[in-house]
Design goal:
The chain is of the alpha+beta class and 1697 residues long.
């Protein structure tokens, strides 16, 4: 059956390839807020099923979700469902039109006929009681069925007489009448689901219907119910082992299920039209609705209780304790090492083990471990279960009893079940004897105490949070309850307690009501309406919990113990009561096991004649009153005469307490040596079948024991015969148990028993035929169980949705119990035979069983050609393989596999997906083929492609498969997450629509989100049992609600502004006004902060590895894999959208500030303050998260990139100037100096943004100039290095760093020069000593004659020296000028500066020491020049090409002038020293002598002629420029002493002047070169590295550039690779260049661009190359002694530094 997909364009994504489409309106109601709500059916379709290929037809039985939606949600998600008046379009009224087409008179006549036919059928049915039904009756029923198929006549068949007729027909012994009743019911229920449900409900609620219905009639109704519910809840549980539920219990479940659905429909339809509800408050419910809610909650609790018992969840699991969920946010991703910081008791439990036995981890394979356990284990040893196996869970402990050759071979008495159970060897871990374990436990406790003492106190509570996260997760903490509420039960707790009160019989119920009446001060009689609204004190509730257990039967009491109210208020306070309950109800498991073992030992070791007690007495000994029931029952059945009076009371007790009866049946699963016990039990059971009351006992729960005895190969033949007699009798009395046996596989077991005993088993074939005939009914029962469970899950999900929508608590009893059982078992693993259905091999299929027999000595050997061998595994539905291992043996030689390939597919014909290929080493024993698959493969095939040594056939020793246990959790998780995702994505779209229409509604988003997240957090804390379930819900909620909201509020509109961006702009504008807590701005800012902190509090997920797309199985049998629904990295996308929005806001803010304030004098301080405010705002809004700090920096960088070049150059110069001023101001010291340092630090944090930007090159240029002036004028300090260390990335050419390194090199050269001077002095002194010694020796030996000869020799030598040293003569004379200087020699320090990193304005500013410096300084400079020239050849000092020194006027000096120490520049030093010889000097002569420019000389003269300076400047008209003279000290009022700083002040460049224009010319010139080179290479383009090399090569060719361009560009004539890369980034941003998509490193010319080329000479490619590099140097002079004093009385200047 197909239907049309009408709203294809309204698609809500639920996961990869999974979408939900709105289909139609189901019903309408008035919501809790008084507004109308509409129930919309959403179809769930996968990609390809939604008609994307062009077809719009979909299967009407497709999965769907019923979702209540408001008008706003429908408008935002599927507005086409709204009509012209704004109301939702209801379902089509075609059927109503057809009804109207019939004539009313005809319709009335037909109704009259139906009534008369009903009367006739009832009369004919009464007449034929006990006889064959006459043909007229069958014809009448046939005509009624034809009338029932006409929909307009449906109302007539709602008459109570119709139900009476159907009841009589269904209870008739004749098959034809029952068949006709089924035809009529099918005709009536064929119209719509509502009619079908109403008919089924009416029939099921008839009194004593179960007594009137036989097996066939009940199956007919059950089949009708299965057909009715199949399309309502299409949910698959394939792969999950469902329990065998007999028809009687199924019918009871159907009754309760129909009752619940009927009450739910009444609740949804109880509200009238929307206009009728406007007069009353939405929060108040009418008395009728309150009664319906209470009745629905009680009915739902009853359904859950019976379903839990039918599924045997309460017996298979241990008694639930408190929730294992760790408190905290369920929306935070679980960290991998979350348990690393926990104490040992919380991280993982300590294991009891004897040190004498080896654990499983020490063995390479499970087979070798199984052999070790088999050979080591002795009776009486304690063991632990390693994995789940049927009824035994992993971690259970017990005592090993015995072993045999059967399968499984090991019998263990388990403490968890209180009886023995057979398991496999490899499933056991040996703990040892009790005395060994006790010693280990004591040692473990001692170590635990030491560890806990070392760790200190426990971890802080989850209520504690860092101060920075004060309001990040406000929903985590539960809401504070009022004092009055904390003293009373909540409504959910009270209704759960009221559920058990209503379970009581008449007297017990009345007694409890009297207790309530006495303790509650009220004048009203406690009726149902008042009971529902009672406020019950906790003390009263505890009293009720004390009295209830004695009044409840076994089933209700088990529910009471498991419910939340009892766990919270009952068990811990009353341990004695629990002990009594365990004694009476749950029995003493240890006593039971001990008695079973005694019975077995008696049978084995002692003859029956020596037994003091019967086997049954040994079985029940120790059970107390409960065990005595079985003894009384045996005595009553064995006594002669009438047995009803004795047996029936005992059966009634067993109905209330069925555990003894179950123990009796389970005794059949004891060892075969208990033959007497087996026969006794079967005799009692055989006699019980004849009592009608016995059929109400839970036979189906212990049928496994009968099947175990039937399948056991060692069962005694007499026992087996009696068992078949019993089963045949039981199935004959009630065919429901034949259906149960069919589900358990009894047909094959009986066939094997017949084959073993050669067919000599009476009634065995009849029993097998009876079981076989129930195959159809077994399928029906399985389908019914699936439908009921699926329907209950859907109703639970519906209640969760109502809880989300109405924010009202869930008051359904056992709601948490049902969810706990659905969420159990997710972490339990299964092994081997539970993972696969069957194993097929390519050859020798009779030996395929050797692959799974867990025996390493056996193997499967193939027979065929090489490469054709394979093993095919048919997997159980939904099993995801965790590990697939192949067992091999190296001793197999050429039979051992060498290469194995694993394939997966949906069937054997589609095995084309290669999952893995493995090369097997010759020494391997275990080969891991697959690990941690993320999807289900129905078929997995292992192909042996090659064998060792070129062998043909292969041998495989075994297969081991590990996989997750198929439980309900994957199914429920998928359904829960689907409903949650759809609900919150619909809500997110509605909220987004509100915010798009009104941005002010963003202020309410925080409270909306907080309410939704708190509700999910509270729900998970109360109802979900563990962290996995809670975090699955939290992850889905966060992805479905927050992710689309963030996507919508961060998406820009037509104006380019997003709603969140606008909100953040408003926050920044009103930030100053928000300091007043009473202002509206403070409230506004608080809401914005709460919203942003809520959006970013979930940490981003780590990037998951890419998942390869794999085909999914078609149909309904698909994998319930949560990873397929999860959208990878959604928290990361949320963070990415938020950071992008914050970056845009910051960029806009900074751009506006730069546009308005870039020319201001205080631009830099204000910019730093603005940046600091943005940083504070980022911390306030998003916390200390690096992603938003990075977004802040990127936003500032984006604004700077928008500046034109000259504006950017001006901004960079302002920053460089500000840093220079703050560095120089910090030298003052004191408070002012500290303030300067603080301002410098704030500025440096702002400047870091320049890193990687185009503005960094310009900033480096200006910073280099100002840094050079500081270093040469004031000197270096630690602050220079600290600043460069912090903002070093802002200098692409690293020129400032090179300047500091050159200073370090100069200091090293200065130290070596000092050693060089000492060596020269020593050499001169040595020469003088030699000369004096020679003269003295000559005078003494030869007298005066020899002396004249000696002078001649000296002159000759001197002449030779002159010839040989002609080139160095002048330098040596100048170098020795100051050797005999009698004054105090000044200390001279020379700084060697490289022009590659130091900005030297012009070559003309050079110093000629011969003309401008006195002789005592010239000699030092000449000696340094000689030293430097000689050091050029020393490899340790200098490498590369030879460099020449050129002295400059740069540098500083200290001069002594009277009592003052003058700090001056080198120019000022020369000028003052020049005045030592002249009293008056004209400025014009100084210019001619020095060769300096007038600006540079006037800059030096200015401080000297100031009020603090020692000179006066006179400017007569006849002297151009004036003249200088020393100021007369008599003119001063008082002498000045100390240090006087006269160094010229710093001069700052202007970006708008020639310097800035030169930088722009250089950039434009590089742009021209880049464009020209790329144009010449066409579309192919160039690699970026090759392009940089070509540009630099073109720039360096000759002159660099031409001399005319040098004069115009000045310092800008240099070009580096960094400059070229900066220009490439600029052109890429402008669109002039483009990257290749396939190869981003390739660049090509994109579009024509107009590049501003400077009016310069073109580059000459034919030039000889650049000039040799120059090395500039300056000097520092410091005196070592007393200042030089002039002989005259006038003050003079002496060189001090």
């Amino acid at each position: 059956m197909v239907g049309e997909l009408r709203y294809r364009e309204f698609r809500v994504p639920l996961g990869p390839g999974l979408h939900a489409y709105p289909d139609e309106l189901i019903r309408q109601r008035v919501g809790h807020d008084g507004h109308p709500e509409y129930q919309i059916r959403w179809l769930i379709l996968r990609r390809g099923d939604d008609g994307e290929g062009g077809s719009s037809q979909v299967d009407c039985k497709a999965e769907h979700i019923l979702l209540w939606m408001s008008n706003d949600e429908i408008y935002a998600n599927c507005h086409k469902m709204l009509g012209e008046n704004g109301q939702v379009i209801g379902p089509s009224q075609e059927s109503a039109g057809e009804a109207g087409a019939l004539d009313k008179s005809v319709l009335g006549e037909m109704e009259t006929d139906v009534k008369s036919l009903i009367q006739r059928a009832l009369r004919q049915l009464e007449e034929c009681v006990g006889t064959i039904p006459p043909a007229p009756l069958l014809h009448t029923v046939h005509v009624l069925s034809a009338y029932a198929s006409i929909e307009p006549l449906t109302g007539v068949f709602k008459d109570p007489k119709v139900l009476d007729l159907l009841m009589h027909m269904l209870s008739s012994p004749d098959y034809q009448i029952r068949w006709s009743a089924g035809r009529m019911i099918q005709a009536l229920s064929s119209h719509d689901a509502g009619t079908r449900t109403q008919i089924l409900l009416s029939l099921s609620q008839q009194e004593a219907i179960e007594k009137h219905l036989d097996f066939d009639s009940r199956c007919a109704l059950l089949a009708l119910f299965a057909q009715a519910t199949l399309s309502e809840h299409p949910m698959s549980f394939e792969g999950i082992q469902l329990p065998q539920v007999p028809g009687r219990l199924l019918f009871s479940l159907v009754k309760h299920y129909l009752n619940v659905t009927s009450l739910l429909d009444q609740l949804n339809d109880s509200a009238t039209e929307p206009g009728a509800q406007n007069n009353s408050a939405p929060e108040e419910l009418s008395g009728e609705r309150g009664r319906l809610e209470l009745e629905f909650s009680m009915a739902m609790g009853t359904l859950i209780s019976e379903l839990v018992q039918a599924m045997r969840w309460d017996r298979a699991s241990s008694r639930p304790g408190s929730s294992a969920q760790a408190p905290g946010s369920i929306f935070q991703p679980q960290l991998a090492d979350a348990g690393a910081g926990l104490p040992p008791t919380q991280a993982q439990p300590s294991l009891r083990r004897s040190k004498r036995f080896r654990p499983r981890s020490q063995f390479a394979s499970g087979n070798t471990y199984a052999l070790y356990v088999r050979d080591t284990l002795q009776p009486g040893m304690r063991v632990r279960m390693l994995a789940d196996y049927e009824e035994i869970s992993a971690g259970d402990e017990g005592e090993f009893r015995q072993s045999n050759s059967g399968v499984p071979p090991a019998q263990v008495f388990w403490e968890s079940t209180g009886r023995t159970y057979w398991v496999h060897w490899h499933m056991l871990e040996i703990l040892g004897f009790e005395e060994d374990i006790e010693d280990v436990v004591a040692a473990d406790e001692h170590q635990g105490a030491v560890v806990s003492g070392a760790l200190g106190r426990a971890l802080p509570s989850w209520r504690w949070k860092p101060m920075t996260e004060l309001y990040a997760v406000p929903y985590v903490l539960p809401e504070d309850e009022d004092t009055e509420e904390s003293e009373h039960l909540t409504q959910a707790e009270w209704w759960e307690l009221l559920f058990f009160i209503q379970k009581l019989d008449g007297p017990g119920h009345q007694e409890v009501l009297e207790i309530l009446q006495e303790n509650l001060d009220g004048e009203h009689i406690l009726d149902d309406e008042i009971l529902a609204e009672l406020a019950v004190p906790i003390e009263l509730a505890q009293d009720l919990l004390l009295s209830l257990p004695q009044r409840l039967d076994d089933s209700a009491l088990r529910d009471l113990i498991n419910c939340r109210v009892y766990r919270k208020y009952g068990p811990e306070a009353y341990p004695s009561l629990l002990e009594a309950q365990q004694d009476v109800l749950l029995l003493k498991a240890q006593d039971q096991a001990r008695e079973s073992e005694d019975a077995a030992r008696v049978e084995v070791k002692e003859p029956p004649s020596q037994s003091l007690n019967t086997p049954l007495q040994q079985l029940v000994e120790g059970y107390g009153p409960a065990g005595k029931i079985l003894l009384d029952l045996e005595q009553a059945l064995s006594s002669g005469g009438t047995q009803d009076s004795k047996v029936k009371p005992l059966l009634l007790q067993l109905q209330r307490q069925p555990q003894p009866f179950l123990t009796l049946m389970q005794s059949l699963d004891t060892p075969e040596t208990n033959r007497a016990l087996h026969l006794t039990s079967l005799r009692i059971l055989m006699q019980l079948v004849d009592f009608p009351e016995a059929l109400l006992l839970p036979w189906h729960e212990a049928m496994d024991a009968c099947m175990a005895c039937l399948r056991s190969p060692n069962t005694d033949r007499e026992v087996l015969q009696e068992l078949i007699f019993f089963l045949h009798r039981l199935t004959s009395v009630s065919r429901d148990y034949a259906v149960v046996l069919n589900q358990l596989g009894a047909r094959d077991a009986i066939s094997k028993a017949l084959e073993k005993h050669l067919g000599k088993l009476e009634l065995a074939q009849e029993l097998r035929d009876m079981v076989f005939k129930c195959e159809k009914h077994a399928h029906l029962y399985r389908k019914l169980t699936t439908n009921i469970l699926g329907g209950c899950i859907q109703m639970v999900l519906g209640q969760i949705e109502d809880h989300r929508r109405t924010h009202r608590p869930i008051n359904i009893p056992f709601f948490d119990v049902f969810l706990r059982y659905l969420c159990q078992g997710s972490s339990v693993e299964v092994k081997e035979d539970k993972c696969w259905e069957k194993v097929e091999v390519s050859s020798n299929p009779h030996r395929a069983g050797k692959l799974t027999d867990r025996n390493p000595r056996t193997y499967w050997e193939s027979n065929g050609s090489a490469g054709s061998h394979y093993i095919t595994l048919h997997m159980h539905q939904g099993v995801l393989i965790r590990q697939l291992t192949l067992l091999v043996a190296s001793e197999d030689s050429s039979y051992m596999p060498a290469r194995v390939v694993v394939y997966g597919g949906d069937n054997t014909s589609s095995l084309n997906t290669e999952l893995n290929s493995v090369n097997v080493m010759p020494s391997a024993s275990r080969v891991i083929l697959l690990e941690n698959l993320n999807r289900f493969w129905p078929i997995i095939q292992i192909r042996i492609k090659r064998c060792q040594q070129g062998g043909t056939d292969t041998r495989i020793r075994g297969l081991e498969i590990l996989g997750p246990k198929p439980t309900f959790w994957p199914v429920f998780r998928e359904q829960l997450c689907r409903h949650t995702r759809l609900f919150y994505m619909v809500r997110a779209q509605a909220w987004s629509q509100d915010m798009a229409e009104d941005r002010m509604s963003l202020l309410h988003l925080s409270s909306r989100l907080n309410g939704a997240l708190r509700q999910e957090q509270t729900f998970a804390h109360h109802f979900l049992p563990d962290n996995e379930a809670a975090r699955a819900l939290g992850k889905t909620c966060w992805e479905a609600l927050v992710s689309p909201l963030v996507q919508n509020i961060t998406s820009p509109d037509e104006d380019g502004i997003s709603p969140l961006g606008w909100l953040l702009d408003q926050y920044l504008e009103c930030r100053e006004a928000a300091h007043n807590p009473q202002s509206r701005a403070a409230a506004f800012s608080s809401r914005v902060r709460r919203l942003t902190h809520l959006l970013v509090h979930v940490e981003p997920c780590e990037a998951s590895p890419p998942v390869v797309a794999t085909p999914r199985p078609k149909g309904r049998n698909r994998s319930h894999d949560w990873s397929s629904l999860a959208t990878r990295g959604l928290p990361s996308s949320i963070m990415r959208n938020l950071t992008r929005c914050w970056r845009a806001v910051v960029e806009e803010q900074v751009n506006n500030f730069l546009t308005s304030s870039w020319r201001d004098d205080d631009f830099v301080p204000r910019y730093c303050e603005h940046f600091n405010n943005l940083q504070k705002s980022s911390s306030e809004l998003f916390g200390p998260r690096a992603a938003f700090l990075l977004a802040l920096q990127n936003g500032c960088a984006g604004a700077l990139l928008k500046l034109p070049f000259l504006k950017a150059a001006h901004v960079s110069e302002q920053f460089a100037r500000h840093i220079d001023q703050r560095i120089q101001g910090s030298r003052i010291g004191g408070a002012r100096g500290m303030e300067m340092l603080a301002q410098l630090q704030r500025c440096l944090e702002t400047v870091l943004i320049f890193s990687g930007l185009e503005i960094a090159t310009t900033f480096e240029h200006y910073y280099q100039h100002y840094m050079a002036d500081r270093l040469l004028g004031v000197g270096s300090s630690w602050l220079e290095g600290a600043v460069l260390e912090q903002i070093g990335p802002c200098f692409p050419n690293r020129l400032p760093q090179q300047m500091l390194r050159s200073l370090s090199t100069s200091e090293e050269l200065q130290r070596q020069f000092h050693v060089y001077q000492l060596q020269r002095l020593d050499q001169e002194l040595l020469k003088l000593e030699d000369t004096e010694r020679k003269i003295q020796v000559g005078c003494e030996a030869n007298g005066k004659e020899h002396e004249s000869e000696d002078d001649g020799e000296a002159g000759t030598a001197a002449a030779v020296d002159v010839v040989e040293g002609e080139e160095e003569e002048e330098e040596e004379e100048e170098e020795n000028e100051d050797l005999y200087y009698e004054g105090a020699m000044p200390e001279v320090s020379v700084l060697v500066l490289s022009p590659r990193c130091w900005p030297v304005a012009s070559i003309c500013h050079t110093l000629n020491p011969r003309t401008c410096l006195p002789s005592y300084l010239r000699g030092t400079l000449n000696r340094y020049s000689n030293f430097y020239n000689k050091s050029q050849s020393h490899p340790a000092l200098e490498q590369g090409s030879q460099r020449r020194l050129q002295w400059t006027w740069l540098g500083r000096a200290e001069l002594q002038f009277g009592d003052q120490t003058l700090h001056v520049s080198t120019v000022q030093m020369w000028l003052l020293l020049y005045l030592n010889d002249l009293k008056v000097v004209s400025v014009e002569s100084l210019l001619e002598l020095s060769g300096l420019s007038p600006d540079m000389l006037n800059q030096a003269i200015g401080p000297l002629t100031s009020s603090r300076g020692p000179l006066d400047l006179h400017e007569p008209k006849d002297v151009p420029g004036g003249f200088l003279k020393i100021r007369d000290s008599s003119e001063e009022l008082r002498p000045r002493r100390g240090n006087v700083w006269l160094i010229p002040p710093q001069t700052y460049l202007q970006a708008e002047d020639e310097e800035g224009r030169n930088l722009e010319k250089r950039r434009n010139l590089v742009n021209c070169l880049i464009v020209r080179i790329l144009k010449s290479h066409g579309d192919e383009g160039l690699h970026i590295d090759q392009l940089v090399c070509l540009v630099l090569e073109a720039w360096q060719k000759g002159p660099c550039p031409s001399r005319g361009l040098v004069s115009t560009l000045g310092r800008g004539s240099a070009c580096s690779s960094t400059d070229v890369l900066s220009c490439i980034l600029h052109l890429l941003g402008k669109g002039t260049l483009r990257r290749h998509d396939a190869r981003p490193q390739m660049l090509s010319y994109a579009v024509p661009v107009t590049v501003m080329e400077p009016h310069t000479e073109s580059l000459n490619p034919g030039s000889l190359g650049p000039n040799p590099p120059l090395t500039f140097h300056t000097l520092q002079i410091r005196s070592r002694g007393v200042p030089y004093a002039s002989c005259t009385a006038t003050q003079s200047f002496s060189t001090f530094q």
